[in-house]
Here is the input.
Amino acid sequence: MLRKIVDWVDERAKVRELYKAQMVEYKVPKNLTFPYVFGVLALITFALQIVSGIVLIMYYKPVIAHAFDSANYTIMKEIDFGWLFRHIHAAGANFFLAIVYLHMFTGIYYNAYKKPRELVWIVGWVIYFVLLVTALTGYLLPWGQLSYWGTVVTTEIPASLADAPILKGFFGAIGETISVWMKGGYKLEDLALGRFFGLHVIFLPLVLLGLVGIHLFLVRAAGISNPEGYEIDKKSEPDKVVPFHPYVTLKEGAYAMWYLAIFFFFVFFYMSHFLPADNFEPADPLKTPPHIAPEWYLLGFYEVFRSIPSKFWGFVAFNLILLLLLLLPFLDFSPIKSARRRPLFFVMFIVFLISSMALTILGTMAPTPTNAKLGMFFTALVFLFFLSLPVISFLEWGWYKARGGQT
Amino acid sequence: MSAWGVVKTVFFTGLTLAFFFVIWIYNPFAHKETYELPEDVTKIIEDPKAALEGRNLFKQNCASCHSVRYDGMYLLSVETKPEWEKILKTMGRPIIEKKEGKVQVKGYYLPRDVYEAVALQDLENLKASFGKVPPDLSTIYLARGPGYLYQFILDPQKVLPGTSMPKLFFPEYDKEAPQKVAKIVAYLRSVSEPPPSEKAKRTVMGVVTVGYFVIMGVILWFYRKRLLEKMGLH
Ligand code: HEM
Here is the structure.
């Protein structure tokens, strides 16, 4: 009976055909390494965020008088399993960004941003940017001390444009406009909370959903890269590719299960980082806490900003890093792909990786003069990475030509 | 995998794990205050019976200045208002407590704006005397932790110099003072932390969930291995 119903539906919907074409006949490189799983893990985390977010939105109240209590009383104490969904959502946000960072570093390592995948990378970058804004807006919602003061600091960063060496009035006006536009006024009040709420729960998730769809479509269209860094010809090298299902689906499925095991370990037993103690104190605009810093996923940029003595140039520097990340496919125009085959690039990748980590960790430390110097040093290394790419590419074009166009 | 491959894998995995360990679990570079907490005090703080005694002690010593709205505990001066009971029942929500399978109403939770409107004059009087409204203590345990609270309540000036919160316990005259303070902290803890039975349930849930995913992963892994061998793909 069931079989008949399914057959009846399939005769009309042709789902089996689609499944066969997209899952079994779709071939992917056989030599994909472990880091290729991060895209799928990001997808799973996205789903977790949406599901847990839908539960939270039923009880959360976006007005100052009720926001803190709706999160900490209604959701944490009044509603059965409310705590579970809040834990999932808070840990999920951190895991999401962690996975996306790993996914991006993987893409950089294997040069997956190069032709024909430039658009995959560019859309990925937009996802990353929107994700940061989503995290930032979500962070304000519980209206604790960290939420409030973290957002105050972040929304004041564009105002540092007023520190410009020339055209102070002009830059100042732009900075203030951005800052006021983010807050919906000069102060962080109900208007800002409502605005952040609307963005966080409906607008940004919809944008993300659309972008992720486009991202996946583009990945399919260009084909997945491979660690060896050359394009496999699926017709002439059939032994180099495998059917997506079951070869990849089951492997990544197993990894996904273990990822969820780690994730739920944190959800049940180790939430003190994801729901930090200071945020259990209701926001108090009259009481500035001693240490204010953004969340860890912004600390690298924050450290670049604060270690440079001029606010204006600090602002320019961290925005430039974001921009250079976007332009990566064009900075690195070498015909050779994958760090496996590019020793110079491999070295610079490690410089970049270690500098990013060092900047993030410096961001958690007190802003002493030594730390500011270290911050500038690692900022310089990050720029060195980006600037070295055209040079490395130039050299590699030379070798490529010398070898008669062989990669 | 080649030796070089192994080196790279170990290096990148190690670096990533070390990074997230520092950022998420223990950061040796970030400065953090620690507050001393004697062994026997810790025992009292974790004892649910002490929390019940602590609730009474709180009512006697602290409720003239502090509310604990999440536990239905309000300023004493507000609770004596003639319209109070009615306000609680019309504007509040019952705080349900499950005790040995029975459901009890422990008190009423009043939304903050409603409470602050009713208590406006009382809160302003406190502000006039102490320079600021003494905070509601519903989530203070989560925000400050047991060590801070114990030391602060024993001697506010020592922990927060210049604070207007008075010292209320004097171990010099009252031998019981440290225990009393510990019981009050136990009470504040009981407001924030789930009761032991609930905690045990969550632990079981956690172990089952994590175990489920670990085992599912292993099953998928071996199922795949067998399948691929059959298909000649491994
Ligand atoms: C919502 C967040 C994201 C999701 C759900 C997601 C999902 C995916 C998935 C499932 C893949 C398939 C290939 C693989 O497993 O590696 C992929 C590939 C890719 N993603 Fe993402 N991604 C996200 C964010 C990003 C970001 C922020 C970037 C970089 C700025 C990025 C860059 C790439 C690139 C370059 C590829 C191609 C990899 C290759 O072909 O080897 N993605 N993504």
